Amino acid sequence: MNKKETAEIKKNFSDKSGFFIMDRILTGFIDAEKNLRCQNVSSCLTMSRAEHDVYSDTLKKVLNTNVGKAFVEYEFPNEAYDEGMPQDILYSLLKSELKDETVCENFLHHIANNIVWEGPFAVITAYCTYAIRKKNKNDEYADGEDELYRYILTALCPVNTGSDGFVFDSSNNEITKKLNTELIISKSPTDGFLYPVFSNRSTDVNHVMYYTKSISEPNISIVENVLGCTFVMSAESEKESFRSILKNVVGDDLDYTMINTVNEKLREVVEDNKDETDRTVIDNAKLKDILSDIGVPKERVDMVEPVYEKICGNVPLTAVNLVENKTVLSSPGITVNIRPSAADKVRTSVVDGRRCLLIDLDDPTIEINGLPVSL
């Protein structure tokens, strides 16, 4: 799923869309010892509006449009569809429409038995349908029979005792210390997944989307053990690997201009492929092209392949994860943040024998600690 497809599902994750139905909700509570303490299936048609809205708001957070970072697509290996394997468990749950108690219980036990998680947590899974309106060659909605996209959306929510603090006791008219005894389910899931994926505006049962609230620390056990897929590097890990490759290949030739130029080339690659369904990647061949285009010497460019293989093997890096949204210049005691639009205003140079950072100012008025200063 690309950003556009994810945005379409998220936009229509509402009763108001007219094409979407959230039919049933499966909930389960798993304690700190990984015991399934309870499970329940509720009809969305009969639950209260307040309850429905809480479920909807929680689940919608899983549909994160930061695709490739917070919301990552994974392909099931061939054996995942064998009986009792993760894809088979998910597909059975999808087919059951959350109507089969045994299938639902099997799904919850599968999560409890395979996840690495500190403390208790809740599982919230919805069975949903979305009527896909067909489009013509001009990307306009066309008349005809709509395809029905059936999917399950799961949110994994941490459970904690109530916040520490004081409360007002209206019966005694006094402020007292609150007792932290209630187990409160967070409305902000830390992880989740969507199955099957919505690809090319159609159903793809051989892929699954994994959501993580923490891009730098995704829960690998969910990807590998619960979903049965091969984990790819996190966004931050990919960025660190890319930095290491550049440092080893370019070495002492790395300077401010080159770093920003590489970043701009990466930004162009992402922009040129923003509507592609498949994730846009940077492999050793693409990186060699980028470095050649910006004038890196051939002997350095030839080093890309062995250095890349040593650091990343044959795994391509996700292009969008490598793009820096700002340039950060840091030296002991000094940090300067530069937006892409102002990258050309900054230079490094030697002035009177001292290495300096120079900033071109179009407007001679600047602010220091919020106070205007004229130069």
Helix-strand category: alpha+beta
The count of DSSP E runs of length 2 or more, i.e. the number of strands, is 20
The helix content, as a percent range, equals: 25-40%
Taken as a percent bin, the fraction of beta residues is: 25-35%
**Major sheet:** 8 strands, antiparallel
Shape: globular
How many DSSP helices? 11
Query: Which blocks of ≥5 consecutive residues have pLDDT under 50?
Result: none
C-alpha-based Rg, rounded: 26 Å
How are the secondary structure elements laid out?
Layout: H1 3-11, E1 20-30, E2 36-43, H2 49-60, E3 71-75, H3 86-96, H4 101-114, E4 121-132, E5 147-161, E6 166-169, E7 174-177, E8 183-185, E9 191-195, E10 197-199, E11 202-204, E12 207-212, H5 220-226, H6 235-250, H7 256-272, E13 281-282, H8 284-293, H9 298-301, H10 304-312, E14 317-318, H11 319-322, E15 327-331, E16 334-338, E17 346-351, E18 354-359, E19 365-368, E20 371-374
Antiparallel strand pairs: 1-2, 1-4, 3-12, 4-5, 5-8, 5-9, 6-7, 9-12, 10-11, 13-14, 15-16, 17-18, 19-20
Describe this structure in words.
- The chain has 375 residues and is α+β, with helices and mostly antiparallel strands.
- Strands 1, 2, 3, 4, 5, 8, 9 and 12 form an eight-stranded antiparallel beta sheet that branches. Strands 6-7 form a two-stranded antiparallel ribbon. A two-stranded antiparallel ribbon has the order 10-11.
- It has three domains: 3-231, no CATH class; 236-322; 327-374, no CATH class.
- The protein has eleven helices and 20 strands.
- A hairpin with a 4-residue loop joins strand 6 (166-169) and strand 7 (174-177).
